[in-house]
Design a protein that fits this description.
Elements lengths: L5 H8 L3 H11 L16 H15 L4 H7 L1 H11 L11 H9 L6 H13 L3 H21 L5 H21 L8 E7 L6 H12 L3 E9 L1 H11 L3 E5 L6 H15 L4 E4 L1 H4 L2 H4 L5 E3 L2 H19 L2
Parallel strand pairs: 1-2, 1-3, 3-4, 4-5
Helix pairs in contact: 5-15, 6-7, 6-8, 7-8, 8-9, 8-10, 9-10
The structure holds cobalamin (B12).
The site of cobalamin has 30 residues, from helix 8, helix 9, helix 10, strand 3 and strand 4.
Length: 306
């Protein structure tokens, strides 16, 4: 699992090392395990919680009151609160340029060192938005323009996917979280958007069923009947021909009569007009998605506390 040492956590949260250590000793809200050489090892969730604590203090809360509230409740509130700040979405262009310069001819060692190094020093969610997704777009574009071989594109895409899955697989399966089914519809092979959505949902404590690319509608429907999802999320990257798009929308509208269905991605945006006539929701981008998730979690939270 990706972990951070305390000096990095101090930089990422804006809290001093002394404060972080003191809070650990007095309040125990963030108690990182130690590495064999006794360094504290903080996870992404620990960093996010420390940031949240700092924001709560800025809003006038006291650390004593937050400590009484307890880690579990704070984590739950934090998940409802998280929507990325604008600066966390801007691509890291210099890093991207350096990475692309390693691709033709491929210098695998330099590429992986640079990618791993760049991803390691910022919270993973920020790395997704600022490095991994823009890198996928760049490399895909280079192949589409005939500037790199498909083998190089596959190599980079697989590395990006491995990173997303590796971190996602470290998260506990939250069987009590809202059930989300995430996939790409039949004929859609562009997978990274769906994978990023799956990671973000799992990170917020959802119970994610990730089914990947090219899922036939009949299988989607029967799978929904089995798991009874609280939300079905589909990623449409390609813009489809009107006939094909309308046929699929009719099927999804039917499904949306039974389970809430939302679609996102470039191909979904192109269907904005047509979607108004259906029960299928459009989620324009990851910010809208995170707001939708917040609503879903808030509903779940209030139900489980009423
Ligand atoms: C990477 C890429 C590829 C990779 C795909 C790797 C993979 N396994 O996923 C490769 C090189 C393999 C590929 C292949 C093809 N591609 Co391509 N590809 C792209 C590229 C460059 C980026 C797409 C991508 O992955 N983006 C990364 C995601 C994360 O970003 P995003 O799409 O902007 O999505 C954001 C939001 O929309 C949102 N989002 C996305 N999904 C969802 C879902 C939900 C629920 C929510 C809330 C949000 C959300 O999250 C993202 C983050 O901000 C685009 C062009 C472009 N710049 O977009 C072309 C593009 C999509 N490809 C295209 C085409 C035509 C193809 C091929 C059919 C080409 C061919 N002739 O073979 C094949 C199809 C593959 C197949 N097997 O059939 C066309 C589609 C044209 C159209 N009709 O719309 C595009 C637009 C290129 C072009 N300009 O012509 N491609």
């Amino acid at each position: 699992m990706k972990t951070y040492r305390i000096h990095r956590v101090a930089k990422l949260t804006g809290l001093s090392k002394d404060v972080i250590r003191m809070w650990e000793k007095r309040y125990g809200l963030v108690k990182p395990p130690r590495s064999p050489n006794r360094y504290r090892e903080y996870t992404d969730e620990d960093v996010a919680l420390l940031r949240f604590l700092k924001e709560e203090l800025d809003r006038g809360q006291t650390i004593g009151a937050l400590a009484i509230e307890g880690r579990d409740s704070l984590l739950q509130r934090m998940r409802l609160d998280v929507v990325p700040q604008q600066h966390e979405l801007v691509p890291l262009q210099t890093v991207l340029d350096e990475l692309v310069s390693c691709l033709d001819p491929l210098d695998k060692v330099r590429f992986e060192q640079k990618l791993n190094g760049a991803v390691a020093v910022i919270p993973f969610e920020e790395a997704i938005q600022r490095i991994l997704l823009p890198l996928e777009r760049l490399v895909g574009e280079l192949w589409h323009q005939g500037k790199i071989d498909i083998a190089i594109e596959h190599y980079v895409t697989k590395l990006i996917q491995q990173k997303l899955f590796a971190v996602m697989n470290q998260l506990p399966v939250n069987e009590h979280g809202p059930r989300l089914l995430i996939a790409c519809p039949e004929g859609e092979w562009h997978e990274i958007g769906a994978q990023a959505v799956a990671y973000l949902a799992a990170m917020r404590g959802c119970h994610v069923y990730y089914l990947g690319p090219n899922l036939p509608t009949a299988s989607l429907v029967s799978f929904c009947d089995q798991i009874k999802p609280e939300l079905v999320l589909l990623s449409f990257t390609e813009v489809r021909s009107p006939d094909k798009a309308m046929q699929l929308l009719r099927e999804l509208d039917h499904l949306a009569g039974r389970w809430p269905v939302a679609i996102g991605g470039e191909g979904a945006r192109a269907l904005e007009e047509a979607l108004r006539e259906t029960r299928v929701e459009l989620l324009d981008d990851l910010i809208h998605f995170q707001r939708r998730l917040t609503r879903l979690l808030a509903e779940r939270f209030s139900i489980s506390h009423s």
